[in-house]
Design a protein that fits this description.
7-stranded antiparallel beta sheet; alpha+beta; 5-stranded mixed beta sheet; 16 strands
Length: 399
Amino acid sequence: MIRAYKFLMRPTVRQDQALAEMLRDHCSLYNGALQERRDAYRHVSKTSVRYGQQSAQLKEIRAFDPERQGRWSFSSQQATLRRLDKAMQALFRRVKAGEKPGYPRFRGAGRFDTVDFPKNGDGCRWDSTPHDTVTRVRFQGVGHVKVHQHRPVVGKVKTVSVKREGRRWYVVLTAEQAQPEPLPATGSVVGIDMGITNFLADSNGGFVPNPCQGKKAAKRLDVAQQGLSRCKRGSTRRRKAVHKVAALHRKVRRQRLDHAHKTALALVREHDVIAHEDLAIRNMRKAPAPKPDPDKPGGFLPNGAAAKAGLNRSIADAGWGVFLAILNAKAESAGREVIAVNSRNTSRTCPECGHTAKENRPTQEKFHCQACGHTAHADTVGALNVIRAGLVRREAQPA
């Protein structure tokens, strides 16, 4: 299995400048390759330029500009071109599916924050035997950079990436390692129902409260963003304001990840089978369609967009997608089973008699069956139906 590790780097002033130059030059390569593709399609009879053609030009580019492009790793530049090719392939896939195309954009120097090295030892080297109790990673054109390694790296390092977040630099490693020993079986199964008021409810009647990290930090973010909007573009004051806003967002993201990791770990340790709703989060966050006013040409009727915007913020703040991704990764390492089931009517179906109706859920929290009179918390009812559907699906799958 493949596991990722992310460590904080502590570069010197010169190394910090060299890392910034590396990002800038790779950004320039990305934009130049994108411009070549656009020009070829527009002016040369709609000709498509492929990755292989652009990769073959790298030797000439490096020889023509040795001060900027020639000093960096050849394989990392190939990875940047693959990154563009992947974006173009995604564009073609969306066009074919009839979705919004979303043509790849040119990247500004401040919006290109990652450089990938496809193979450890080719343009970069992770030092697995630290000298003087200090771990270092070497990058071509930068040198040996100190790394704050807060946990050991298990397995063979395959790829290395450099990532900039605000004023901080991180190294991201992917390591190939043997499948770990599964956790001892507990004999317990559980279903979970994701929500806004409570982060999740389980089929045993338990609840995990929603920490609402984004909501708690909203006031400070508003003040920081208002201060940013008053700064003149290109000024030192604006640059400081940008870093302040980025630091607040980074703190919220880390708090959200911490909560997701701890919640997922508790579930994986306590249960052998975990069933959850297969949520279409992107569709849930779509804005409502406008309602034209038939009496006023060019006017529109209220469509609840303001209320939906608030719900969308709450869904994004909960971070369901991140949590489910972490849950699946931890379950795979622990030898647990995670089952995704259809979420349709899970909170409207009575777990006692099976009656399904919209009226069974009169409020957000209350469930009252109109057929048998069963009452319970609506989220607990949803979790019960989820685990039952998950076990049915599990038994129906061929061994």
